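To: structure desk
From: M.T.
Subject: fold request, one chain
Message: Could you run this one when you get a chance? Sequence is below, nothing fancy, just the single chain.
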Amino acid sequence: MTEINSVTTLTQEGDVAVLTLNSPPVNALSANVREGLDLGFKQAIESDAKAIVLICDGRTFIAGADITEFGGQMKGPSLQDVQATIENAPKPVVAAIHGTALGGGLEVALCAHYRVAVPSAKVGLPEVNIGLLPGAGGTQRLPRIVGVQKALEMVTSGQHVPAKQALEMGLVDEIVDEGKLREGAIAFAQRCVSEGKPLVKVRENNAKLEEARGKPEVFAEFRKANARKFRGFMAPENNIKAVEAAVSAKSFDEGIAEERKLFGELMMGPQSAAQRYYFFAERQAQKIPDVPDDTATRPIKKVGVLGAGTMGGGIAMNFANVGIPVTIVELKQDALDRGLTTIRKNYERSRGAVPEQTEKRMSMLTGSLSREDLADCDLIIEAVFERMDIKKEVFASLDKIAKPGAILATNTSYLNVDEIASATSRPQDVIGLHFFSPANVMKLLEVIRGEKTAKDVIATSMKLSKQIGKIAVLAGVCPGFIGNRMLSQRQREAQKLVMEGAMPWDIDRVLYDFGFPMGPFAMSDLAGLDIGWVKENSKGETIRDVLCEMDRRGQKTGAGYYDYDENRTAKPSPVTEKIINDFITKSGRNPRKVSDEEILERCVYPMINEGAKILEEGKAIRSSDIDVVWVNGYGWPVYRGGPMYYGDQVGADKVLAKMKEFQGSMGDDFKPSALLEKLVADGKKFSDFKQA
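Reply: Done. Structure tokens follow.
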């Protein structure tokens, strides 16, 4: 065995040279790895071996580029140099894939003459998820193997393709037995030699490209079909242009040059910087300074859920999906039956639903009318009515029923977790698990740490969130926690702007153009204006009251803030406009023209300021945690990083100046936080802030 460098070794088995890469945790293409590959392949080429196998130790093949190097000074050989060495080898090169071959990893494998994989392996080009495109030939080689349509789907979605599907597509040439990758790859390489297999260069295979030449409609139709999904993002469009270049370029090298240009545009642009920032922010959110990674966790083998309504049912589904049994408790049989029926329908309607899988998941759920049936649960989550007296009664009763060591969780979106915990004799076991609706779909989980919540309860909750496919962020106890506390700032300003002369559709349009899926008034119409509205108590005191009294309760009644046609397409409503103008007149004001710039600043800057208060009070660990909440729970466009990242891009000084300007003309709703003032005084950013 020859050690090429600290991460690469070269051995020879018979007439096959085996180059082994071992750079934990995921064999990312760092300078050290590129150097090892370049030197290792050159040495293998010069040896008397007749074929070369590239294989990786650890849990995966090369899982992509080393993102930490992006934007820095390139060291060692470039990835393109390494690829050229592999592709131009005068003897067969076989890439042996296990785990994942993603991004640059797949781009390296596509330069091998052949690829073999174990059944559990996956391949893909996920660069679009960090605002980039595959910059090492991926957009040029992929369509030459899988065809233009499939290549477009893969590079714009970042999908991971399982080995069996990759075999059918031609991305791998053979599947070898699980656990026998090395032997299988060597055997394949030996057959290449004995059978005189050609040295296949993907770059020279143009047959699949010819099928799309002279057919611009292929790209036009793909853009049209995905316009809604790609809205606002630069990376999908540049990925499409790069695949177009593969088809239209006179040569492979010309296509590569266009790919590099398009990659550079993204790499130097603001969107990829934001998406790369978010990539690390999401991973950072798991780290809690005073709860070490090795903190012991409590086993969660059975879960109880109180309430079978929309929220309770959705919460239960998360655990059933991963094979954790759930007991759902309701007060009345009809409510329980209705809840279980809804869960079944949700499973049956889900994409790719299989009857056997639906039955398997439903078998994880047990309905009950007795809280006593929660006595053997390791975790009990209440999803009952959002009222403190009800919550406290529930927790006092669970305190008597639950076994010692059981975690008692509240799904409250606003109420004080410490006050809820005070109804028990075990506040150390109480935590907030704020799922977002619909709970079986939304990724975000706010984990609310009470004053007395035990560290192992926090560690268990964070670990469990990952198990059920959620992105968890730890928050402290305060009204509305992180997300809803900041949302209330936006909602207040949106309502005030309407009373100053901005129409709901003006406000919604500005926020939609900023990148949100919809604005606050369109969202209200979708949810239903009558949520929390009581007809008997309504006195026409607000615009919402009047709309509800007119039975304009949102999309479900065909009218709310907007008017809707039979396809639920919204259009500005003269009825709503008249109601608003009547309210403005009654208030003694005159409506004014409000600029788009003011709408955006009024809706967003108070949120950033509130985020600063949340940090100042220690209710969030870091500014990036706030961004993770807003990207996952509220539709903040990931290509803008999150509200605190956006505040840094705008400049804390500009945010502060505007807040002071608004405070001077509109009052203390805009009073700047002490932290915002301090950061500006010190010339620092939100990202510089560290909790004591």
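Reply (cont.): The longest helix spans residues 596-616. Let me know if you need anything else for the meeting.
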